[in-house]
Amino acid sequence: MKNFGYVKVGAAVPSVKVADIDYNVEHIKAIIDQAVAEGVEILVFPELCITGYTCQDLFRGTYLLDKSDEALIDLLRYCRDLPIVVIVGAPVRQDNRLFNAAVVLAGGTYYTVNKTYLPNYGEFYEKRWFSPEGVNNPPTIFELPSGVKFAIEVCEDMWSPLPPSSYAASAGADIIFNLSASDELIGKHQYLLSLISQQSARCLSAYVYSSAGFGESTQDVVYGGNAIIYENGSQLAHSDRFALDEQLVTAQIDIEKLRAERVSNTTFGRTQNSWAEKAVNIPLDVETGSEFVLERNYNPLPFIPTSADMQASCEEIFNIQVMGLAKRLVHTNCKNVVIGISGGLDSTLALLVCVKTFDKLGLDRKGIHGITMPGFGTTDRTHDNAVNLMTSLGITQREIVIADAVKQHFSDIGHDINNHDVTYENSQARYRTMLLMNIANQVGGMVIGTGDLSELALGWCTYNGDHMSMYAVNVSIPKTLIRYLVQYVAESGVDEVSRTTLLDVIDTPISPELIPADENGNIKQKTEDLVGPYELHDFFLYHFLRFGFAPAKIFLMAMKAFDGTNGPHYDEETIRKWLKTFMRRFFSQQFKRSCLPDGPKVGSVSLSPRGDWRMPSDAASKLWLEENY
Known about the structure:
alpha/beta
């Protein structure tokens, strides 16, 4: 699909005068021109916008209807050579019946979709003027040359127990357009947003809503002028309510993303099979849009909850980790756990999870055995933080200096201690894991893994070293999120002494500390200097696993996300370099994920080989590494 699967849509709220068709069409044309200039490919207007929704018994006269028909022909001619599909609302006569219709104008041809459910309550007596469309009619699906599919429903249709859009989405519609004229009442707007959000999420679709605004009759009710665009439950755009001026809101819909969700959702697929066969499919002969430019903004930290729900989200994630460990301890009747404490973020979070779990189960914190294992690269800062935290949290602590034992191991295998290669590093990691496993046997406990999701994606863990444990509580927590979780606990769940230590852990550079410190005793081996910034890798990981996007699209999105507008800035060369690194490492390191210990899933992205990610360890990476971007 062209344009990386994006299509630009618009929802318009034009100025209207009730029954003044010339005025209404003039303003509709002006918005169409604006939309074309902005590269909009599909544009929707409100219900009955040609005449005005509130004409009431004027709809019974042929003169208004004749003029409306003439206006539609005029608009059809106006749009014929424009690179846009326009959807307007008008009264349409068919077989001696009058319908409240959506009229699709595309490349000199028009099609109608009639309203299915007519309100007949309060100030709305549509059944007085219009006939309803049959409820059992097959859905009508329109398709652009690009392959984008859309369907239409009108106002009340969405509020019904069985919205036509549900069937249309099941038949393959990527986008639902709704032409509406819904009045404003106290509390109704929030319900409307909830309804659109839920319908777009349930249908795994985009939902583009346009409702009548200023100019409609206020004889009994007021129309707020809502133009709203949602994508799979998330709002992309919203007009200003109660505005006196006409409005156009636009957004780029990611069709590829929606279809990826549908492919992975087998429940959706089961409904699609039956309705796709019944649908009326209409190909539209119109090339839409202009030269593609990515307009959507992307969160550079997709794993991080928004500030509005940060505390609630962190609490939920932390509780999922706690409940996962609690079940394993109760099932095994285990009252002791062993955990290596380095003074870094990962082991700190794992320790906090253990403490919370023991408190929840009413177990003595002394059953948590924290082991510090200083090696060649351990700095005073991380060592002191590890010791201070274990002391303030009241767990059992033990220190085993591994330098002499590892030197003996180097001697046994004939390795030069001055050669700081992968053997030098991994020997330390594996020796530490051996100690933890054997101590767990001593105390009748289990080793708690500290490794995180980002490390697993990159393979930045030692096979049968820190890669292995008996239960891995951080296994689906990305590196960028761990800092926020530790911050959450520091601010809400520990004593003041522990809080001070946790804040310093947060400020400590990320490092495995396997290479000796510099001459000033500071960390010399910084992980992000070696494998790249975790905020970039987590961005790549989220969009690669969550939606299966190709490297070129991820690169395009990363360029937008990391342009410095909404956070950190990385230039094109840096993003390209580390995206190549991510793809290379992700494919080459699958063997480590294939034998991953148990651990709780906390979000939509996980690398567990038993559920979310099943991949052969010898899959070729050629396609992903050679794509041009």
